[in-house]
Amino acid sequence: MKKTAIPAILLLTGTAIFAQQALWGGQEVVSPEIHNDYRVSFRLNAPHALKIELTGDFFPAGEQQDSQGTVEMTKNAQGVWEYTTPEPLPSELYSYSFRIDGVKVTDPANVHQIRDVASVTSTFLIGGGQADLYKVNAVPHGAVTRCWYDSPGLEMNRRLTVYTPPGYESGGAEYPVFYLLHGAGGDEEAWIALGRTSQILDNLIALGRAQPMIVVMANCNAGQEAAPGESSEGLVRPSFAGTTLMDGRFEAAFPDIIRFIESNYRVKKDKACRAIAGLSMGGFRSMHISKQYPDLFDYVGLFSAVIEPRGEVTSEVFQNTGEKLKVQFAKKPKCYYIAIGNTDFLYQANVDFRRKLDENQYPYLYCETGEGHIWKNWRIYLTKFVPMLFQ
Amino acid sequence: MKKTAIPAILLLTGTAIFAQQALWGGQEVVSPEIHNDYRVSFRLNAPHALKIELTGDFFPAGEQQDSQGTVEMTKNAQGVWEYTTPEPLPSELYSYSFRIDGVKVTDPANVHQIRDVASVTSTFLIGGGQADLYKVNAVPHGAVTRCWYDSPGLEMNRRLTVYTPPGYESGGAEYPVFYLLHGAGGDEEAWIALGRTSQILDNLIALGRAQPMIVVMANCNAGQEAAPGESSEGLVRPSFAGTTLMDGRFEAAFPDIIRFIESNYRVKKDKACRAIAGLSMGGFRSMHISKQYPDLFDYVGLFSAVIEPRGEVTSEVFQNTGEKLKVQFAKKPKCYYIAIGNTDFLYQANVDFRRKLDENQYPYLYCETGEGHIWKNWRIYLTKFVPMLFQ
Q1: I need a labelling partner for A179 at 20 to 30 A (CA). Which of A390, B5, B80, B230 fits?
Q2: How far is CA A314 from CA A249, A320, B58, B327, in A?
């Protein structure tokens, strides 16, 4: 090791070459830079690259395979490529990637990333509107726990993400519980990372717009112990759950999760104090679990939900849907909430489902937004659903 | 949306274009591939790139700025670049990056990454030896909680990472507590991510080599609420804590953390049931906190520790070190453990410190390893220190 190469500040602070590398090994540019007017500049130091592109969910969808717009960045004399959005961006949590000579990568100058199934992208947040609910603000914070529960129904120990509200540790109160389910390809990390659940709950509770509650984010893939990298399968590549997606085993074994939560957390244990919701496949599961166990949940949320089982479905859970819905609605759930974007590929399936509910005069609340099957919508639905719970 | 473009499997599973993008948007190569003989292949699909390099901590340190070796990868006819290590890699948790035409990036085919200060690298694990302790194995798992404690001493709410052992939630037992501190530039995420603390504790407890215990990983940066991205500062770039590194405020306010843990967790509250250790600057803090509060800790671990305060240090915490050590050792701590690598830039400072302990006949245990100021060593020291605690 060349001691003369260590800057004085590092000697002073007692840190090592390794830390020096960790801090300075990346690109020494600021990216993204969010300007005061909410335009955003992206930068990449790449003097030897031939072409750098930027792709992100703030661009209108293009014809590209990835359904996102792509722009070419411009290289300056120092070899730094740059692109600034021509207009301010609306308040939102955004994701983006660079393409370096055709290879899609995260921004080396930005440590903040989000994984969605097998895709990792860089992320940034524009405040001043809806996304203020997704920020960590200076409000009391709940705790987030990754714990493991025993599932006799699935014959394995399985991982759960649990949000407990501010004051839970130090108090003695009992809380209502909201079970929140991910979509196909997701896992127990999806809602907490992409969904910003803990930030949304902290902020809505601080604003007096939501009751303090516990939120349980299960892993809904019946064949899986935990998220990729968090189970004994090792550092595997994430994939869709395949044949176990609609085998009904997760739905049938759902009481195992409730039993764990109600045995180990200070919770209220009646129908009026339980909610269940999910996105896409998690909406499907919420619909089927809540009608399979009609005495469990007074609040049900279907966010961009799959409605009908597909393929060869044999589980009893998915049989006699009409009869089970009749039983469920006869027990008068306090809130049955359906939300979907008007360009979602599941839009018509939800129109058809609502028609069935209407024909039977089953009451529900309906929220229709723009756009499609995207996390932007699921975060919005969460911020709308949570304030209605346990009132 | 072109419906004809959706593969049948996706229609079947009810997932959307967005999920399709998330799953298939990356590189369709397998990387890294760990062969049965523990050689490893790395691959990147980059037909238009001019040069792809691989850099990782499994190469011998070279002359590069980043102190890591770098090799050029080879492009095949399909535009996929590849490199396979000529020899099997020893058991370890490794990190690596690609350089695409000079730009250092993570592997787009590998979602598993680790952040060290401001540097994000891809990661993989070679089993069959020491790193089996870093794996998620099929053993009972503890829970990991990110919670917030009130620090009157630092006048803020601050974030903590807490490991509770398997069975904590469902039992009634009281546990000993191990306080584990990060280095300069780190935060409350460092030990749980880079240090594999929860995996090491799960595995050592399952093997009967460690007592069940609670591990508290504090944020030791006195001016900081939480890790970058987890506080109201927003999605900021990580940096060293600068002037607050050695102002003594964190050390003086350490009892705030103990008070929170002992008020809100089922713990044993005596000296024999408290341990403190840390790496680098965290070792410095462990040394100074344990002598400042000589009745608190029976177990003290200094991993590659900074010893002497540097620069203008005025805090009372750092005064009269000799006198305070005399008081501390008169109270006979059960284990005072010093570990360092023989190429560490702090090696001589630790030799000098041990000489002082020897001169005063203060007993301690000493562990010297190869190599320097790196996480590989800190994980090893953790696996050696934990089995000695609370016996």
Answers
A1: B230
A2: 11, 12, 50, 72
